[in-house]
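Problem: given the chain below (710 residues), write out its structure.
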Amino acid sequence: MNTHPQVLDGTGAEISGLSAPAIGTPRTRVEGRDKVSGKARYAGDIPIERLAHGAVVTATIASGRITAIDPSATLASPGVIGVIDHRNAPRVDPEAGSPFFGPDGQLQLLQDDQIAHGGWPVALVVAETHEQARAGAERLRVSYVEQPHDIAFSPGHPAARPALSAFGPDANKGDLDAELAASAVVVDESYTTPAQHACAMEPHVATAWLEGAVLRGIDSNQAPYGIAAQLATLFGKPLSDVRVQVEQVGGGFGSKTGLGPQLILATMATMLFHRPVRVALTREEVFLATSARPRTDQRVRLGADRDGRLRAIGHEAAFEISGKSEFIENCVEIAKTLYAADAIRTRLNVVPLNILPVASVRAPGTAPGSFALESAMDELAERLDMDPLDLRRRNEPEVGPVSGLPFTSRNFQLCLSEGARQFGWAGRDHRPRRRREGHLLIGTGMAGTSFFTTAFPSSATITAEQDGTFTVAIAAIDIGTGARTALHAIAADALRVGWDRIRLRIGDSAIGPAWQAGGSLGTTSWGWAIVAAARDLLEQLESGPALPVSVTSDTTEEIMSRPHRERHSYSAVFAEVAVDPATGEVRVRRLVGRFAVGRVVNPLMVRSQLTGGMIMGLSIALQEEVVRDEVSGRQVNADFAGYHFAANADVPFIDADFVEDHEPDDPLGMKGPGEIGTVAVAAAIANAVWHATGKRHRELPIRLDRVIED
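Solution.
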């Protein structure tokens, strides 16, 4: 039975004899029923025989060293099997890290008596049950010698230094100072954003055990193959002797892209106690011991002629990092790509502090960077007495503004025009504080952005089975985005068969190398590998071989041989807010976004992705911030009561849709839709709040106390 929808011609009549392609057809996710019925199994749900449980003990100081650990009360607790700390923990490779950033100190758990930050894991208590492990952990006595800690972030910090250049050098196009001096209107302002957490619904959970020489792991993560490779390096094992699997992931948003403390500690415990061990972090431990987005301080300088033509773009950003590891919060990326200007200069600095190691959190770099640049663009439009939309239209580049490379496709202007039309932007009075509804002030604002897109090498294996089905295996992972459903569609079309003839295997490092679910590059990278394997398999099947027959294809050569061009997704976001000046409350009434994200595999899921991203952007604008105690150095709002983010009552009407777009350097015409939904929202809301109140907010979040009027 053909389960595809009918294929219609332009008049709506069915085209006889054709089946609709799976790509482009809206489908509910293949695992959706299991998720809503409770049948889906997450990392903490998988039954393992003889399973023991580990509970983490974290440091109560932000800097110093451990002077003593007294485990006597813990070892006397019911069910406790043992305690692991720096005195008996297995040794790990001190050079283990990532190819981008080098050795990573946050992987060096329980290796010495030094405390890197408040919440640093200092011990693991292992017991027969989760509750017994927690009870034992509460009885562990740890003594410290405290040393002065430094969590005071500022761009002028004496420890500030240039960031790594793994994402490319600073921009140095033209003479910025001369172009600013020659400009009729100049904006020179600073914008700050706080540290933020990913706040995935599922806490970090891992189980580790040994099968002979093979280290097995079930872990909630975004990169099974990459994490298996990191784990192998860390513990000095060949990659063939490490296997990491996961069935379902309850969200990640960047916090599960790297090797987390849960899997490191579970691995140590299974090595010492020769039992499978599961480590499930509490919500507080997720906040204290897994990665966050860093605080940023950004200076943006814009210079323009009276007609709005940009002469100068200067974007300097500083962000905090931990002294334990490097990271690049690339806030200045869109300053190099979004608008044309005679001079463009970017600078990126880091400030090492006694804080939790920072890493990717939904749209890293671009989310805080777009808030700064797009707020500054709105300020420039204000000073020019110009429509902010027209200002952006007048500065469209013909080629990459810094690189000089041609664009593969660039539909930013289409996003602007379609978004403005749907929102009803025409006729807007651009002067602030002009609209009222009773005691409420009403304003509208907009912002745009670009988001880097590409594909990374991956491998896929496809087997033609004797029963006429195809088994498609790739070490991809579905972190809740619907990747399973998208890959199923890609495989069906690539193999030219019906949906029900595809069997998909993902979430297993043993399948082979594959990119992570991160950077909005997962499905794009995996889809390319599936297309390559399908092409090679169909060629082999033409000779009529005996079944089953398998083909494994790797996309490294194809991807690396692409021409040098600028590849980006684009968006435009429009917001309407109502502000109560007496209470400081900001209510977002409408959000409209239009996105150029390449060929859309599943319109239903992509709209869901974009809508979810816009909700995250709303949270960033109005609510999210990590608060650290200056005395202890620890995060004080390390739970869902104190760390605020958007709930249902905060979410307005959201209209998220995509414009016609295609990526010519991708075999499927795809770009990543995952993170771009978040990026421009904070600036659009901040600009709308200015339009409502006449007050600029250059610091996020836009809290009640920052809005309230006397």
